[in-house]
Amino acid sequence: MRKMPRVMAMARPAALPVPADRRVSAFSPLPVMDRWGEDAAGIRPSALEQGDNVITMFDVIGEDWWTGGGVTAKRVAAQLRAIGDRPIEVQINSGGGDMFEGLAIYNVLREHPQPITVKVMGMAASAASVITMAADTIEIGAASFLMIHNCWVVAAGNRNDFEEVAAFLAPFDQAMADVYAARSGQEAKTCARWMDDETWMSGSMAIERGFANALLAADQMKVDETAKASDREANEVRAMELTLVNSGMTRAQARARIKSIKGKPDAADDKATPGAGSTDWMASAAAVLDSLRA
Questions:
Q1: pTM of this prediction?
Q2: What's the per-residue H, E or C state across the chain?
Q3: How large is the average pLDDT for residues 58-72?
């Protein structure tokens, strides 16, 4: 039996800035969400029972309009209050989502007075990788991934507008680079370069570079086929929304267009993905999505 490496806790990095005005929305790019759907959907802990000090993040970061779910700072804060002054385990499998909400969740977690262990079960990409950095100890699956990149947004306007957006984003990218550097022991400029390149790190690479402390045992996670199907179905709706936003629509316009195809968001039965309604619409949605991607 292979001996697991000793897990060493680290001091939590500094707090991250969170914009008071959220007129600029930060997303995970479509290819990231597609990769999450292919490589990490449905991965869950193998244990049948979980402690009452465990917070699970198997969803997009930020409020999910389509499912009514999503991981938000408000919900995490409520969970921490319910757990109280005890050590926390956070289980993550997320392709990211709203980067600014991820910064807020990071801040909420790092203020917890007891040790925090984050377990990356499948993927911690984009905003989810920022949340991961709030832990004292990070464990990651050998086949799991951690991805870091610059804050990614969809914007519209002339060159002056884009210069304003770029100036607005620069402090957040620098703050994230500083947190990744503090966590990993790497230089901030090295982390910034990896962010520029949208860097994916396997479990062993994340440990080698200082972004995680130890590998999770393979038997600590499994693929839940029911959860996998649900994850992928919900992700297709989110992908279509993001594709329409990329084409120039507002989020409200994109959601209205998708609703016109699929029906009302509350039309699903209890066993379906919330917001899915009749599954007949999925074929039409997939065709539209493929057309837009092409």
A1: 0.82
A2: CCCCCCCCCCCCCCCCCCCCCCCCCEECCHHHHHHHHHHCCCEEECCCCCCCCEEEECCCECCCCCCCCCECHHHHHHHHHHHCCCCEEEEEEECCECHHHHHHHHHHHHCCCCCEEEEEEEEEECHHHHHHCCCCEEEEECCCEEEECCCEECCCCCHHHHHHHHHHHHHHHHHHHHHHHHHHCCCHHHHHHHHHCCEEEEHHHHHHCCCCCEEECHHHEEECHHHHHHHHHHHHHHHHHHHHHHCCCCHHHHHHHHHHHHCCCCCCCCCCCCCCCCCCHHHHHHHHHHHHHC
A3: 87
